[in-house]
Amino acid sequence: MAPGSYARWVRLLCVSDIHGHADALAAVLATAERRGYSQLLVAGDLCFPGPKPLETWRRLTQAKAVCVQGVSDRALATLDIDRVRPRSEHERARLDRLAATRTELGELILARLARLAPTFRLPLEDGGELVLVHGSPADPMEPISHDMTDEEVLSLLGDDPADVVICGGSHVPFDRMVGGVRIINVGSVGEAPCSMRGEADRARIDAGGSGALARGMAVHGAGGTGHADATFVELRAGELRVEQLVVPLGRAA
């Protein structure tokens, strides 16, 4: 399926927050391929800080994935490391990992990460629209989380016209209707929390630098969790069906 087109029957495989965990991505793709899907959509945070950033990028390229830019993608491409003053050994290690990831990916891939669009839009057969974004329509770098109130979610939807929002960023999957908009957070492939408490703990990690780029530099922990999240979004005859998956991972993922 060409990006932006819509067929009579489409099954989208939607993922996010791979964070360089190529083995976890491979497990998700293998599971999805047994079921069949038309297009892979990725809601950002592709390559950092996991162990296999280049392999992750190559797998996404081979799968002809439609990717939008996440926080860590922007950090990889644009963060000025020399201007960041680490406040702990953890932050220093994150900066070192950022530099190593840049070296492994090379300038060409970094340039492509910098050019990734913040959103991707897909027209629906019924005249509506689906938008893929890392965080939220109002701020692609600010995620919609499972524990937000309707009012908080509405503020992050802003005046975007989309009827369906596919997003990531918070690492916790959910499927929710707010203000007539269906919000489908697809969780995380590479750093899915083992529990809601695990996600809350990660949210307290401080970052060096400032703003969204700092959050991208100090992403959520070490990864290597026991499962990966993925979501099938099926578009059939004007209907939208959602199936959220939990893919078990071996230790190597």
TrEMBL record:
The membrane-spanning stretches of this chain are none
- Top-level taxon in the UniProt lineage: Bacteria
Q: Which Pfam families match?
A: Metallophos_2
Q: Cite the InterPro entries for this sequence.
A: Ap4A_hydrolase, Calcineurin-like_PHP_lpxH, Metallo-depent_PP-like
* Residue span(s) of domain Calcineurin-like phosphoesterase: 11-192
- Example of a GO MF term: phosphatase activity
Q: Which GO terms describe its cellular component?
A: cytoplasm
Instruction: Report the sequence similarity comment from the record.
Output: Belongs to the metallophosphoesterase superfamily. YfcE family.
Q: What is this protein called?
A: Calcineurin-like phosphoesterase domain-containing protein
Give the source species: Sorangium cellulosum
Q: Taxonomically, what lineage is the organism?
A: Bacteria, Pseudomonadati, Myxococcota, Polyangia, Polyangiales
